[in-house]
UniProtKB/TrEMBL annotation:
Gene Ontology MF: a single term: 2-isopropylmalate synthase activity
EC number: 2.3.3.13
PANTHER family in the cross-refs: 2-ISOPROPYLMALATE SYNTHASE 1, CHLOROPLASTIC-RELATED, HOMOCITRATE SYNTHASE-RELATED
Top-level lineage group: Eukaryota
UniProt-listed Gene3D superfamilies: 1.10.238.260, Aldolase class I
Record InterPro entries: 2-IPM_HCS-like, Aldolase_TIM, LeuA/HCS_post-cat
Residues covered by the 2-isopropylmalate synthase/homocitrate synthase post-catalytic domain: 65-103
Keywords (A to Z) from UniProt: Acyltransferase, Transferase
Name of the protein described by the UniProt record: 2-isopropylmalate synthase
Keyword flag Nucleotide-binding: no
Species the sequence originates in: Helianthus annuus (Common sunflower)
Length: 113
């Protein structure tokens, strides 16, 4: 199911629309709900996080900028680049948008043989 609403809705109104869909659509727990939020006034990140908070739907972990794993780097070459010059792989600080970097290493870290 894909929804598209006018971009003039407030975050609260948009969240309420999604909450209404969840409350009134039988079997909605078996459906992936995808929404498209416009970037009005440069508030795309804020809007996404607000919709997540009010609707109870979680942003995909791999979603750019706002996903929980958006600032995680598993590849050894990415981790090396991060140590040398962080802005090579990150155009902004995770802390600037309320996320915190994971220091866990992924399974792919290490030398190739």
């Amino acid at each position: 199911m894909v929804t598209h609403y006018p971009s003039h809705l407030s975050c609260l109104e948009f969240g309420q629309l999604i909450a209404d869909i969840k409350a009134n659509a039988p079997g909605i727990e078996n459906v992936i709900v995808s929404t498209h939020c416009q970037n009005d006034l440069g508030l795309s990140t804020v809007n996404t996080l607000e919709v997540e908070e009010y609707s109870g739907l979680q942003v995909q972990p791999h979603k750019a900028i706002v996903g929980a794993n958006a600032f995680a780097h598993e590849s050894g070459i990415h981790q090396d680049g991060m140590l040398k010059k962080r802005n090579t792989y990150e155009i902004m600080s995770s802390e600037d948008i309320g996320l915190f970097r994971s220091s866990e290493s992924g399974l792919t870290l290490g030398k190739l043989r």
